[in-house]
DNA sequence: GCTAGAGGCGAGAGCGGTTTCAGGTGAAGA
DNA sequence: TCTTCACCTGAAACCGCTCTCGCCTCTAGC
């Protein structure tokens, strides 16, 4: 044995197929890849031999020869230990689910990466160098995604980011406006808000939307920070209610926080939606696990991730491509039925 | 241009580094991989040249040469469209989060695969052939995982499965027993259950645990199927309550269903936990989004996935390896405080 | 019957690494 | 001073596949 380890022990290679079929490697390759230049009779022969041998082309060799790996990368910045990001927030699962659905039937694979805040720069550089089919940025800051884009063009951000980076985003501002407007139409006048973390563009836009709506109605702004976690939402709601017992509505920047907020509200002896109406954001699983069911702003995350994936598969979007998805107000039980 | 496309356009290869450092490719390889056989002075020179050029070894070439790709596969059978699996059930996110955490600092990547029920056989065969570092089976049936194992040994199941397949599993039966026993100790005597889907080993074990507990206490079995979805849990609870209004406790085989069940219970005018006590299973995000907070059986999914990943990285477990993780009863608000 | 052209086919050169093997060097030991 | 040996180092084979290029055959056209 001259070599250390045979690559994939026992597995037939293209050479085995070629030999068994009595043709050259080139011909087998042509047949396998459905490329012109092989007669029908040879095609069927090669195909049957390949099937018989259980031949499966090596992804590594193929990647090396062609220069492209068929892999889509999903990249998310992570906070804290496990449970910290993917495990905790439904958003990421939805991104993965959407991307996976677009990959079905393709020979492209999906890889998941977490980049920790501490060594984000190196991580971004390393990842960007290694992208082949394309990368989806799930929650990457504008600075980092710009850096990524400079090193690798085949990338799409799923959150608002630097203008050069192709983005599929949601109309966060309109969503927040929609929510606050609905609460106002219901007759609520003390509409507080629980926001997401700083330096998160989605959170910022939702905050801006809330503020401009509040301002437009001439109401008083009442904000707290919930950090996009359930606990944060719970604590923020309790604080708000303690300080401003007159609050009669709550706009919460994500359903996870909203679920916590609802718990805090009912724990304080108030009823949802009679005393405090609540509208969340995302329409994630958290909205349907909460009790009462959360009224929320629906985001088509899966569709966005799927479309982004398809774009990457087709060569990627152009410089500065930007598509904004509309959001939808979903009314469930955490808001009272609208008066006619 | 004799070749079609250079592999990774513009990126320095090992040849560039070798030339710039005035050494051979072999030496560069030794330095990069920290293999003995290069003098310290050359090591530092090569390293600095590599850094300067921004050299990053090609994963594809490396995989081809060594025969192993550094990739862990997470495999789940999917049901329905997106949202169908990964997007809907918190379990999968936890598996991913656990696996990711074990991969941190490693050069190993994580890939996610969904195999649809229709073409499961082919999918399993294809995947098994392509496994390199190892595969984690998140929710694969015993038959399929056995088939997988026959084709590729580097695999660990995270759910109970065929005895030959290495498994890291949870003590589902003990968990169900624990839950029902607690409800019984609280004085509840009409303890119904909502189970998971057929041909799901976890669901079966939890059902068995419930039944043997009920039998042990000499109580009446009251079961319904909730299919591991929130809607299913909701509907099952409503049906159970309609048919058996005397029910005073509910054991639900996963938190997602339990969240739905709680909604159905309160919608029927009953109170949780005063009228109906509820214990879920998993301690997933659904448990903490529900209102009231769910008492549940905690499963260390993240830890299991992390440990499984580590085992795979270290060469994989032995034939028939089996580790059973203990579960823990977490008491929150959906059960009344225990009487002393 | 002869030539041109088209299409099928194989040889062979990469893709970017890893690893063996042989040679070369210098220090230690005889 | 001459071996011996350990330690570096580079040449070259190889991993499995793709793709160009040139040869060969066969058909169509004159």
Automatic annotation (TrEMBL), chains A, B:
One of its GO terms (molecular function) is transcription cis-regulatory region binding. SMART domains: HTH_LACI. InterPro entries: HTH_LacI, LacI/GalR-like_sensor, Lambda_DNA-bd_dom_sf, Peripla_BP_I. It holds the Pfam family Peripla_BP_3. Keywords: DNA-binding, Transcription, Transcription regulation. Residues 12-66 form the HTH lacI-type domain. This is LacI family DNA-binding transcriptional regulator. The lineage of its organism: Bacteria, Bacillati, Actinomycetota, Actinomycetes, Catenulisporales.
């Amino acid at each position: 044995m001259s070599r250390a380890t045979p690559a994939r022990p026992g597995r037939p290679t293209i050479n085995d197929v070629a030999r068994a079929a009595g043709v050259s490697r080139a011909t087998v390759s042509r047949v396998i890849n459905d490329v012109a230049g092989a007669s029908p009779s040879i095609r069927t022969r090669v195909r049957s031999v390949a099937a018989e041998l259980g031949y499966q082309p090596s992804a590594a060799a193929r990647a090396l020869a062609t220069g492209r790996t068929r892999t889509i990368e999903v990249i998310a910045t992570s906070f804290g230990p496990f449970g910290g990001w993917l495990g905790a927030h439904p958003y990421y699962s939805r991104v993965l689910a959407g991307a996976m659905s677009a990959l079905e039937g393709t020979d492209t694979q999906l890889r998941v990466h977490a980049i920790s805040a501490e060594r984000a720069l190196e991580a971004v550089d390393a990842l960007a160098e290694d992208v082949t089919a394309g990368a989806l940025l799930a929650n990457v800051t504008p600075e980092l995604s710009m850096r990524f884009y400079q090193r690798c063009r085949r990338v799409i951000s799923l959150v608002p980011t630097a203008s050069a980076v192709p983005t599929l985003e949601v109309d966060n501002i309109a969503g927040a406006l929609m929510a606050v407007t609905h609460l106002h139409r219901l007759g609520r006048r003390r509409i507080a808000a629980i926001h997401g973390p700083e330096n998160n563009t989605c959170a910022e836009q939702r905050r801006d939307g809330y503020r401009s709506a509040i301002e437009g109605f001439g109401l008083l702004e009442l904000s707290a920070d919930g950090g996009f976690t359930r606990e944060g939402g719970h604590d923020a709601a309790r604080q708000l209610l303690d300080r401003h017992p007159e609050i009669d509505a709550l706009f919460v920047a994500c359903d996870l926080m909203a679920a916590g907020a609802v718990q805090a509200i009912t724990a304080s002896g108030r009823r949802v939606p009679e005393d405090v109406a609540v509208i969340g954001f995302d329409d994630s699983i958290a909205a349907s696990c909460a009790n009462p069911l959360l009224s929320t702003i629906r985001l088509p995350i899966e569709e966005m991730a799927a479309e982004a994936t398809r774009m990457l598969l087709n060569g990627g979007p152009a410089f500065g491509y930007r598509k904004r998805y509309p959001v939808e107000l979903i009314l469930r039980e955490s808001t009272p039925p609208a008066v006619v």
